[in-house]
Amino acid sequence: MSPTLPNSSSAGNGVLIGDGVQFARDGRAISGTIEVAQLPRITAAGALSARLAFSIAGFVNAFGFPSFRVTVDGSIALTCQRCLEPSEIQIAINRDLELRGTLEEIEGADDDVDRVLAVKSMDVTALVEDEVLLELPIAVRHAACEPAGDESVRSQRASPFASLAKRR
Q1: pLDDT-based confidence at residue 112 (cuts at 50, 70, 90)
Q2: Which residues, including other chains, have CB under 8 Å from residue 87's CB and lie 6 or more apart?
Q3: Smallest Cα–Cα separation from 52: which of 32, 31, 34, 78?
Q4: How far apart are CA 127 and CA 9, in angstroms?
Q5: Among 41, 86, 123, 135, which has the highest number of CB atoms less than 10 A from its own CB?
Q6: pTM (2 d.p.)
Q7: CA distance 157 to 18
Q8: Cα-atom radius of gyration of the chain, to the nearest Å?
Q9: How far apart are CA 60 and CA 86, in angstroms?
């Protein structure tokens, strides 16, 4: 199945996996593309554009738990915090998520396994958006750029440390 998710202003209106545990146990898969308009939390974080290809494949892991292998590839344009110009962030996610029935099981786990709450109706868009949010940098910056603003004003501005140099 390769849907392009419908345009929606809410992640809750995306494609749903009816029963995540059964989806995983049956080894089913879903794939498609998601645009920025379908990612409300990423849009709220300032995304200018995004096109992400995703796939979610169900399987049973080595410990016998139903799991999803989530793969997301694409890019998101966010505003550079230094120069205020668009900065393209490449997204390449390949993560296994173990499905668990209760929050207590997830919170009580004492290992490095990534887990997600298995519910009867799992929103694919929200799941992909969650994983992408975890990959985004806290402060978006180009590898090399100049601070935004008028160059002449910046060069005329006195250093805040100039008065300290006079105290020597």
Answers
A1: confident
A2: 77, 78, 79, 80, 140, 141, 142
A3: 34
A4: 16
A5: 123
A6: 0.76
A7: 60
A8: 22
A9: 41
> Which residues pair with residue 71 across a beta bridge?
55, 94
CA distance 131 to 96: 11
Give the pLDDT band of residue 152 (cuts 50, 70, 90): low
Q: How deeply is 90 buried, as exposed, middle or buried, from its count of CB atoms within 10 A (0-12, 13-18, 19+)?
A: exposed
pLDDT for res 155: 57
CB 133 within 8 A of CB 71: no
pLDDT the model gives residue 15: 83
Q: What is the 3-state secondary structure (H, E, C) of 97-150?
A: EEEECCHHHHHHCCCCCCEEECCCCEEHHHHHHHHHHHHCCCCCCCCCCCCCCC
